[in-house]
Design goal:
heterodimer, A: alpha/beta, Rossmann fold, five-stranded parallel β-sheet, four-stranded mixed β-sheet, 6 helices, 25% helix, globular, B: alpha/beta, 3 domains, six-stranded parallel β-sheet, three-stranded antiparallel β-sheet, 9 strands, 53% helix
């Protein structure tokens, strides 16, 4: 008997009575979606900047290598993505569009089409996500009902810069992924 | 070694034990604040518990659906009945890819299967990339907590091991400095690894995808830079619908660390062009636990660690005192299911205060199961010192004369016996406690003298 068969048959021989799958109710969320989102992002050590701030940031010279895949703020400095993520180890700043944001926790949903290469938001030293204010929802339930079953090979909720508290519970920003997260609300 | 003797070791360094206790309580308090911000918290727990009950009641169906949908998405699905088969599957993939160095993000399942030593014996360099796990890996220790692997260490310890392994400045204990040194060191490992291994937080049969949650981004750094992603999951990690993630992601991080969500919540559905994803479904005793009516709902656990942070015993005895991959209250009901003899003392490492059950996001009745395991273990062992004293007490309380005499005897002996007899090793409650001063007379004697 294959391992698959042996695992499945040892479950089947229990003849369990099926327990009902609960329906998911609707849960109320914050009234002020944008304000709550900003507060949640601050709690996660991210920040909100304006589109003007972003232009200044890109032109400041502080970030030698900038990639932008943003369609919401077009014509930003960028370059053609390489084939392999490992060729992005010197990426200083990545700017990408988010699909929707969640006010209760500042999580922003991104799919393959937003990323270009899956490694982009992780390998970059600093990350900017552009998000339409109208795409901010109240909680995770609303977020998943909007995302639905839409097929993307990869999808991710990003809620802040990379962080860790593994040394004596002291919060340190910039563990492996982006050292900062700025969100431009348009 | 038994839990009491390991706990005694931990308590030798009183200052550090106190620090450990306070630090975990701090995490517990953060969890309280986060949960109280959600008015529907209790309803979310009830829903999560109900969803998991449902999954366990038709796990065979969902496992097959997961395999079918994931395969259709281009994920290669493997089945492993035990740890050995799991390790063999990983090894066969590494051999095929001629891979001698891998990066791994946090996976309690691979700890349970002892994958690291298995691969190291075969000449593979395994690099744990979660900062806490990397620290304990340098020290050749297992994680002492499932969410906070290095919580038993002080920054001085970490500074020392980083000085030795990563050539950081001697004596520099700044967490920012140490974390950034690890970032640099691990980036090189990420850049070089052809295969990355991750655990799985949730798998969704509806879409054939699985979800991995981290704060550091180490799972994503690993898998998106490597050619091959191997994800290892226990068969109980299933939740049926994508929408159910809304419930579980709201509960997980709030219960674990008091954050409103983990930083990176990655949904893997198909491999990127030219890459591979393997998903290994592992039983390793889970179907056996499912057979045990009293204990099967321990399989609902989502590994948040809340029961450890709140447990008065865990906080004061440390993760290593349990000697099992998953320590703390949940580990004490899971581990006896794997080896009841080896882990026979764990269900007794509890005050049965019930705090673990109160904080559990999927409402596992942990303290009741601890009590049930005690019954099983005591039955299997035949007798215990506590059982013996209960029998004696039964005799004393049923005979008025025996009660009268025993009281006098006890008062006299407690006053006059040498401390070594009262605080002997058989009396666990005598450790670190002083008995109250013994009254000269019983209440009955006092009453006869003063009120009659």
């Amino acid at each position: 008997m294959s391992s698959k068969e042996s695992i499945l048959s040892s479950i089947r021989e229990l003849n369990q009575v099926e327990k009902p799958l609960p329906d998911l109710p609707h849960f109320e969320s914050a009234q002020d979606l944008v304000g709550t989102f900003q507060q949640s992002l601050q709690n996660n050590k991210g920040s909100v900047i304006s589109a003007l701030d972003l232009t200044d940031l890109v032109n400041s010279g502080a970030f030698p290598k900038v990639f932008s895949g943003s369609k919401l703020i077009p014509d930003l400095k960028t370059f053609e993505l390489p084939e392999r993520g490992t060729d992005l180890n010197d990426l200083d700043l990545a700017i990408i569009d988010g699909q929707l944001g969640v006010s209760e926790n500042a999580a922003i949903w991104l799919e393959d089409e937003n990323l270009g290469l899956r490694a982009v938001p992780f390998i970059t030293q600093h990350l900017v996500i552009v998000l339409e204010k109208s795409k901010i929802v109240g909680n995770m339930h609303e977020a998943y009902s909007l995302i639905g079953l839409h097929h993307s090979g990869f999808g991710v909720f990003i809620a802040g810069p990379s962080k860790t508290a593994d040394i004596e519970q002291s919060l340190v920003i910039g563990a492996h992924g982006a050292k900062s997260l700025r969100v431009v609300l348009v | 070694m038994s839990h009491p003797s390991q706990a005694a070791n931990f308590l030798k360094d009183e200052k550090r034990a106190h620090w450990h206790d306070e630090t975990l309580w701090f995490v517990r308090e953060k969890r309280d604040i986060a949960s109280k911000n959600i008015p529907e918290w209790e309803e979310l727990r009830k829903l999560a518990s109900g969803i998991k009950d449902h999954v366990l009641s038709k796990l065979d169906y969902y496992l097959e659906e997961l395999e079918q949908k994931a395969s259709a998405n281009g994920i290669k699905v493997h089945w492993a009945k035990d740890a050995e088969e799991h390790n063999e599957i990983v090894w066969s993939i590494l051999k095929e890819k001629k891979c001698k160095a891998i990066v791994k993000s946090k996976s309690i399942l691979t700890e349970e299967c002892h994958l690291n030593p298995y691969l190291e014996k075969r000449g593979v360099e395994v690099v744990d990339t979660d900062l806490g796990e990397r620290i304990v890996q340098f020290l050749k220790q297992p994680p002492s907590h499932i969410v906070l692997p290095a919580i038993h260490l002080k920054k001085g310890d970490i500074s020392e091991i980083f000085h030795e392994k990563l050539q950081t400045e001697k004596g520099n204990e700044d967490p920012v400095y140490l974390t950034h040194a690890a970032r640099k060191h691990l980036r090189d490992k990420f850049m070089a690894a052809k295969v990355a291994i991750t655990g799985v937080n949730f798998a969704i049969p509806e879409t054939g995808e699985f979800v991995v949650c981290t704060n550091e981004g180490n799972a994503d750094m690993g898998v998106h830079l490597a050619d091959v992603h191997i994800a290892c999951m226990g068969i109980e990690k299933i939740i049926p619908r994508r929408a159910d993630l809304g419930i579980f992601l709201r509960l997980l991080a709030r219960s674990a660390t008091g954050q409103s969500i983990t930083n990176y919540n990655s949904h893997f559905r198909s491999p990127a062009p030219g890459k591979e994803i393997h998903l290994i479904l592992v039983d390793n005793g889970r179907t056996k636990q499912l057979k045990r009516e009293k204990f099967k709902n321990s399989l609902k656990c989502i590994r948040c660690g809340a029961c450890m942070n709140t447990c008065p015993i865990y906080r004061r005895s440390g993760g290593y005192s349990y000697g099992s991959t998953v320590p703390g209250p949940i580990g004490s009901i899971l581990s006896p299911g794997i080896d009841v003899k080896k882990y026979s003392t764990l269900p007794f490492a509890s005050t049965l205060c019930g705090s673990c059950s109160d904080v559990c996001p999927v409402k596992i009745n942990i303290h009741e199961q601890l009590y049930e395991w005690r019954q099983e273990i005591t039955k299997a062992q035949g007798w215990s010192t506590k059982g013996l004293s209960m029998k004696m007490a039964n005799g004393i309380f049923t005979s008025p004369l025996a009660y009268k005499i025993s009281g006098k005897l006890l008062r006299a002996s407690l006053k006059n016996l040498p401390k070594s007899v009262i605080y002997n090793p058989l009396n666990a409650w005598g450790k670190n406690r002083d008995l109250p001063e013994v009254p000269k007379e019983s209440f009955k004697e006092w009453y006869l003298k003063n009120r009659s």
